[in-house]
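Homework-ish question, so no full write-ups if that breaks the rules, but can someone show me the predicted structure for this set?
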Amino acid sequence: MQLDQICLPIKDEMDRLDEVMRGHVRSNVSLVTEVAEYIIENGGKRLRPVLCLLASKLVGYTGDQAIQCAAGLEFIHTASLLHDDVIDHADIRRGRPSANAKWGNHISVLVGDFFYCKSSDVFTRTGQLEIVQLITDTITATTEGEVFETIKSNDIDIQEDDYLAIIRGKTAVLFSAACQIAGVLGKVSEEMQAALAQYGQHIGMAFQMADDYLDYVSDEAKFGKTQGKDLREGKLTLPVIVALRESSESEQKIIKEALLSERLEEFKFKEVVGILNKYNALEHTRELANKFAQDAKEDLKIFKPSLAKDSLITLADYFVYRSM
Ligand code: FPP
Ligand code: MG
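A: Not a homework solution, just the prediction itself:
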């Protein structure tokens, strides 16, 4: 199913989201506005807002704070990508030159800080200390996840558990917060809040695993990122971890050389993909992503049937079987 169809219960809010975001990022410094506009206009799937808005519908919250929090979540995500693209030396984001490629690292980091401050502003304005605390804890965990990933990059002894801890931190906690915030806004029971947080965590794990799978197989024009970016960056994600575990010494050597090489030639990338396929490493990654997605669906059992619930269930499969 297409994301647009999944988002039908929140169509009005999604149609308003970019305008709400634009309203928060005006600056007297024209370059800040220019970079912020470039990023907002460039789109993206807006998955964290989608989760927050669908979960708000699920719990029957109808106030304006859901869309404000949705914008705040997208600001955090934007800030983290601006910083991440500097860390990763990325050239392309969402099919267009990344901000660091266009304006340089300094501007990227600073506009990232600007977005981060705007998210603080949005969440503070909710007047709900519980939400501010949740977001603070989330960003702390995200940063720790990213640092842990940096420490582990090029470490060929990395284990699957390390990988799971990294993606939980750098990705899943924000998905989890996006869902839990709706529970706070809707003042639902602790049990329901925990179920929302858990759903977000599971779907976030599924999302990142699918991302790491797509990194190897996806069409660059669709995915909006350079194919094989992770391997080129020396990033050991699940497909490579599985292959390193299963392959022969000579095959391990090929993978290691690819991870360490400054400029990876196309035939060497293809050689590594061949090894990943030989050991079903990509398939294994997708299967594990699917397992997390199925767990996410289970988490929603506590909620009564609704269109929003149907969308959240379908979203779990979309996360695994998307192509972008
Ligand atoms: C993308 O992962 C990056 C993240 C999911 C998190 C980045 C987090 C930080 C830089 C720390 C937090 C900072 C702030 C300001 C909140 P990826 O590199 O695997 O994905 P990609 O292929 O899309 O780049
Ligand atoms: Mg990156």
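Now go work out the reasoning yourself. Hint: Strands lie at 92-93, 96-97.
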